[in-house]
């Protein structure tokens, strides 16, 4: 697991999405769209976070027409504090890695890769 937070990069994405609106209940599809994570990655993360007490989970109230009820998620109060601390720690570590890179920039930053030359393109060759 990267950094000292104990959370994977994917888990940090989920925590950041939940931190954006900590009081709101969010369904998995919404979180998947926001984070770009596939369901096979997202739902195990949500289950682990719920098992740790960082995320609260409940079924959607009422009987939605035309679809099954959704499972909803939000950060618990302890989860919000842990998420903010983990995200801050990840940001500090990313800044430290960027500063430690040659020239003080992130690895690969500022380097430009040129495309290989192919003969016969306009403006090239005879």
Structure write-up:
The protein is mainly α and 126 residues long. The protein has a single domain (9-103), classed as Winged helix-like DNA-binding domain superfamily/Winged helix DNA-binding domain (Arc Repressor Mutant, subunit A, Orthogonal Bundle). Helices cover 45% and strands 10% of the residues. The chain contains four helices and three strands. It has helices at 9-20, 28-35, 39-51, 77-100, and strands at residues 26-27, 55-59, 71-75. It has a three-stranded antiparallel beta sheet. Helix 1 crosses helix 4. The mean pLDDT is 84.
CATH top level is Mainly Alpha
Query: In total, how many beta strands?
Result: 3
Stretches where pLDDT is under 50 for at least 5 consecutive residues are none
N-to-C series of helices and strands: HEHHEEH
Please, what is the CATH homologous superfamily? Winged helix-like DNA-binding domain superfamily/Winged helix DNA-binding domain
The description of the largest β-sheet is: 3 strands, antiparallel
- CATH arch. level architecture: Orthogonal Bundle
Strand content: 5-15%
Give the end-to-end Cα distance, rounded to a whole number of Å: 54 Å
Shape: elongated
Query: At the third CATH level, what is the topology name?
Result: Arc Repressor Mutant, subunit A
Oligomeric nature of the chains: single chain
| Tally of alpha and pi helices | 4
Average residue pLDDT: 84
Strand order of the largest sheet: 1-3-2
User: Gyration radius, to the nearest Å?
Assistant: 21 Å
